[in-house]
Amino acid sequence: MSEELTSEQIQLALQGISVPPQPQIMVDLQMEQYMPDPDLGAIARLIAQDPGLSGALLKIVNSAHYGLSSKIASIDKAVNLLGSRTVINLINAQSIRGEMTDEAIVTLNRFWDTAQDVAMTSLTLAKRIGSQTVDESYALGLFHDCGIPLMLKRFPDYMTVLEEAYANAGPDCRVVDTENHAFDTNHSVVGYYTAKSWRLPEHVTNAIANHHNALAIFQDDSSRDPTLKNLLAPLKMAEHICQSYRVLGSQDVDHEWESVGPLVLDHEEGLRLAAGKADLAADMLAMLLASLDADREAIRAARASQDVHALIERIHRLHGATRYCGVPQLRSACQRAETLLKQGAPHTEEALNDLDKAIIRLEAEARVMA
């Protein structure tokens, strides 16, 4: 198994792949951030010039993670609450999407959803264990797979190969090994180079490069940079919780986690303990409830348009979000509906109706408990 990537390997692997330049707004924001006394008002004014970035920022600040009693509609207030570092991470992520064609964006709907889910879950876990790298954990969750849309832009059959990569993952075959065999490069390499060129923190770029090399890293008891392990531990658990193996890899089993999971939990005792704690379940449930109404509407829209592929993807995502939330009825309804959809079984409509009822029931229970 390979160690951290060298500059020569990166340059070779990037031949033929277009890495997007850092947007001018990012250059302006970083110049402001590096000032001795950053002006948050100036940062807010820069963001307000771009409706897409403004909308993305307000969506995050009004998410369940921040637990605000009322919604924020002001960019100034959002920037002051989030801080310049988190704001810059969000804008970088939005800029990756801006590089894609409309067709690629539709193909990668599952990618955009899971990137934010993994980022928020990584942040929640990092806070839960008292990590000193909470902001970097969020950035890593957001950017660890940023090479995927760029790979798809270069290789039209990339998603098929990625699904094969997740299917083959195990102790003797990393996800990126299958990609390397097909393309002589992989999304970790491309993501590393993009993150590095966009001046993300070095610890984050190194973790992006190695996030599918986690087994070798956690097996190594030498003096390897402990920050790398401390960043990768919540990331790998967040990927498992958010079911990246299902959403991106279309697999029913997380083969990668089966190999690396025990080592991750042994390394970070706090994660092992947090996985069984009620307060973590409460955090995860709050995240689920924040998007539940939108999930229900998306599922209904996919049913109405008879878009089976979109329907499976939305239920995939919802099923992943129920992990560790303590909502067995909704989780079971998701699993049954998804299974029957894939089989084209005669009772599919009944299962979808049951899923809709389970969502409505959970929302009603949440209102009573509020």
UniProtKB/TrEMBL annotation:
Highest taxon of the lineage: Bacteria
Xref: SMART domains: HPT (SM00073)
Entry GO MF terms: protein kinase activity
Domain called HDOD: residue spans: 19-214
Keyword Membrane attached: no
Gene Ontology biological process terms, A to Z: phosphorelay signal transduction system
Modified residues (Phosphohistidine): H316
Domain HPt: 277-370
Keywords: Phosphoprotein, Two-component regulatory system
InterPro entries according to UniProt: HDOD, HPT_dom_sf, RNase_Y/CdgJ, Sig_transdc_His_kin_Hpt_dom
PANTHER family in alphabetical order: HDOD DOMAIN-CONTAINING PROTEIN (PTHR33525:SF6), PTHR33525
Protein name from the UniProt record: Putative signal transduction protein
Species for this entry: Pseudomonas syringae pv. aptata
